[in-house]
Amino acid sequence: MKSTVYSIFLGVILAGIIHIVVVLLVPNYAPRDAWSKISAVSPGWQLIRLNSIEGKSDLLPLLDPKFRVAACRFSLDDSALRIQTAAKLPFWSVAVFDRFGKNVYSFNDRTAVENRLDLVVVNPVQMSLVRQDPPAVLDKAVLVEADIDEGFVVVRALAADDTWSGLVETFLTETKCERFEI
Amino acid sequence: MHRLINIVIIVGLALVGGGYSAWYAVQDHHGFGSIRIGLWTAWPLAGNVDADPYTEAHVAREGTVPLGQAEGIAFFAGQDEAGDILLRQCNYLVSGRTPSSRLWTLAAISPSQLPVPAIEGTPDGAFSSTVVRNAGGDFELAVGPRAAAGNWISTSGSGPFSLVMRLYDTPVTSSSGLVDPVMPTITKTGCLQ
Questions:
Q1: Which of A32, A154, B155, B164 is 20–30 Å from B193 (CA)?
Q2: Is the Cβ pair B57, A23 closer than 8 Å?
Q3: pLDDT per position as a tens digit, A45-56
């Protein structure tokens, strides 16, 4: 009897440990997380659409139907990332995520220089190079230092109704997601 | 024999208890790090580097890209004022005000987090700039299958759903905390038979 009580006690303790380990491991092994789904359709360095086009279902759940959303995968191993467009829009916002779907930086058109989307993401090594010799093109760009290897950028463009389509499509098609050599 | 039973108890409890409780905990959003205003709940740290492990695991499992702090915040409501779950075959009145923000959107989503289909050719969501308000700045917005004059989001089919109100560029997410903690009420006005 005594040993059964002891076994139950030990089982509960072990259950607690397994609970904690599983919860902590989920982000590393989630097969359907945002990174995996984006990777499945894009090799990187290109802006792909996350919301439905022509009746297909959204690539990711819980996107705002009043927005058109696009994402670009990148890696900071060889070069920095620059995402920019000359087109303007009444409202847009951008979020930089790491490989595990954690948001490392976000901003919207109000917090950008002249309301233009021009974002450069660098890792700490690239940042030290930028500090030594700042490239002139970075004058009007939002420069973000992120201590990550891989990640993705999500661009959300407001398209409240169909009359916005032209404007939003121009904005998204003219947005370039490119390597930026430092 | 006795020893074997004990081992079965230990391993069984550990695997089933630990595994199931972990699965349950990340299955849905729970209270961790949430803010509640009336019927509405938001998880401001979802997707954030400071998120707790449960919120982080939930986001990874769902594969969502939550709004960043400078983008906005999403509030979810699954019940009306009476405490009943929201049903697609029922009509509701969403009324009141929202915290200050540059713009907001309101949409209906299914339990599997897909958009609830609207009746063909009717509004499937609302956008702050096109919502009609009264003199005091409050709005009244009908949600449900019955066509309504003024602000209306139509729902079709039956079964539970949730409302998502997304506030963009709002001080609610800034470090100053809850500046303006008001959210609209949701009242049932009837159901289809």
A1: B164
A2: yes
A3: 999 999 876 666
